[in-house]
Amino acid sequence: ASRSPSGGPLLTPSQSLDGAGGRRSGDITIGYRGSYTIGREAQADAKFRRVARITVCGKTALAKEVFGETLNESRDPDRPPERYTARYYLKFNFLEQAFDRLSEAGFRMAACSSTGTCAFAPEQGGPADDKIWTSYTEYVFCRD
């Protein structure tokens, strides 16, 4: 193994350690699809559906460190720890719970992005007064 000038092991960027407990730096992206209905004249009481699934994208080792047993790995079960995956999802459906776990593990939100489209409009045979919208949202968290 290579050594740094200080005599310690030489680490690649993906293996870098921070000064607070030796945790790996890296990024984790949380994503979810949602839908909501807005009635006539964009009423303030839009009906939101619950989040069906929270997806996790990042290095396998980081995802397992943060989410532990709540990480569902069934779609990519044998992924090596230092490889990226976008196929994991969480066993719970509360974004706040995911954000809390990331915060407790030393991650901070670096970016977010959301899209929304009208999925079902009256002229396409949908409900006369309602429009059903779908959205996809991603939150990028990083730890230096």
Automatic annotation (TrEMBL):
<dbReference type="GO" id="GO:0045211">
    <property type="term" value="C:postsynaptic membrane"/>
</dbReference>
<keyword id="KW-1003">Cell membrane</keyword>
<dbReference type="GO" id="GO:0043235">
    <property type="term" value="C:receptor complex"/>
</dbReference>
<feature type="domain" description="KCTD8/12/16 H1">
    <location>
        <begin position="26"/>
        <end position="143"/>
    </location>
</feature>
<feature type="region of interest" description="Disordered">
    <location>
        <begin position="1"/>
        <end position="26"/>
    </location>
</feature>
<dbReference type="GO" id="GO:0008277">
    <property type="term" value="P:regulation of G protein-coupled receptor signaling pathway"/>
</dbReference>
<dbReference type="Pfam" id="PF23110">
    <property type="entry name" value="H1_KCTD8_12_16"/>
</dbReference>
<protein>
    <submittedName>
        <fullName>KCD12 protein</fullName>
    </submittedName>
</protein>
<dbReference type="GO" id="GO:0042734">
    <property type="term" value="C:presynaptic membrane"/>
</dbReference>
<keyword id="KW-0597">Phosphoprotein</keyword>
<keyword id="KW-0966">Cell projection</keyword>
<dbReference type="GO" id="GO:0043005">
    <property type="term" value="C:neuron projection"/>
</dbReference>
<dbReference type="InterPro" id="IPR057093">
    <property type="entry name" value="H1_KCTD8_12_16"/>
</dbReference>
<keyword id="KW-0472">Membrane</keyword>
